[in-house]
Amino acid sequence: MPRIASFRPATEAAAMTSNRLRPRRVEPRTSDELAAEWDRVAADRDQLIVEGRDLSYSYILIPALLQLSAKWLMPGHRILDAGCGTGKFASELARDHPECQIVGIDPSPSSIDIADHKRSGVANLQFRQQTVEGFATEVERQSFDLVIANMLLQNVSSLPSVLNACAQMLDANGAFVFAVPHPCFWPRYWKYEKAPWFRYDREIWIEAPFRTSLNPDNPVTTTHTHRPLYGYFNAFTAAGLVVEEITEPYPDEGIEGQYPIAWEFPRFLLGRCRPRCGIDR
Ligand SMILES: C[S@@+](CC[C@H](N)C(=O)[O-])C[C@H]1O[C@@H](n2cnc3c(N)ncnc32)[C@H](O)[C@@H]1O
């Protein structure tokens, strides 16, 4: 008679799966570990974006980043897409602003492979597999007029090092434009706000499935850091970056209906900082 000791009722199996997929607190990750995580999701992530299945990327983040960056998207300007992933945004910047020089960097080899294969060969666009911190040691100070960090700052091993590197690479008249999950509302959206391990006022590393609103069942995980609002703002100040504008965008009415979960609060916080050395002059 076959042994069925390992058999588990479907409901138990489902419960185990959903437990495994629930966000959980983890130890801080190194840059290499984070890059390996993004390697695992790179191809899926690229497909989601290209097929327009990441609604927030297409309809919330990119429009708001472009609006915050508008004054710096000028002929002759040098633009860094820091943590460019598979490079779609960088390649669109290069296409739409042929007189700007665009560099996209990311430490995830698979992400940069996709960027290189699908999006390189354009005169004003380069990709490099590198962290922001590493790249800052290779280029001259003040090498860029605009540094854009789309959903980067919550995914780095050291926020102060990354912000210092970005500030160092910025021209005195330049701008640093960022998007992060909204520290006040993302924990509620991801339903870990009431988890016993969560505290709003602490920096906490969280492993969670890499899902988007239209791709809710992805079992592959990535790690992000929750930090309170003051954690971000104090880190900007410590890096010599002065917050000039912030925005908490909502979807337009036509797009909102496409989200499976209604928008009850802002999910993202975006802003533009300027180097204090430029403002003090
Ligand atoms: C949430 S993804 C965002 C990717 C891209 N900006 C986008 O919107 O599709 C975060 C990215 O940050 C990259 N990353 C992690 N640590 C980094 C670092 N120290 N410097 C630059 N990029 C980093 C990861 O490899 C990953 O591709």
Question: How would you portray this structure in words?
Answer:
It is built from 11 helices and 10 strands. With 281 residues, it is α/β, with parallel strands linked by helices. It has one domain: Vaccinia Virus protein VP39 (Rossmann fold). Helix 5 links the parallel strand 3 (101-106) and strand 4 (125-129). Mean pLDDT is 91; it is low at 1-19. Residues 31, 34-35, 38, 82-85, 105-108, 111, 131-133, 150-152, 155-156, 162 line the site of S-adenosylmethionine.
Descriptors:
single chain; alpha/beta; Rossmann fold; seven-stranded mixed β-sheet; 23% strand; globular; disordered N terminus; binds S-adenosylmethionine
Q: Could you name the CATH topology? A: Rossmann fold
Task: Tell me the strand order in the biggest sheet.
Answer: 4-3-2-5-6-10-9
Question: Secondary-structure element sequence?
Answer: HEHHEHEHEHEHEHEEHEHEH
User: Which structural class matches the secondary elements?
Assistant: alpha/beta
Taking the alpha carbons of the first and last residues, their distance comes to 84 Å
CATH class categorisation: Alpha Beta
Unreliable residue runs: 1-19
What's the shape? globular
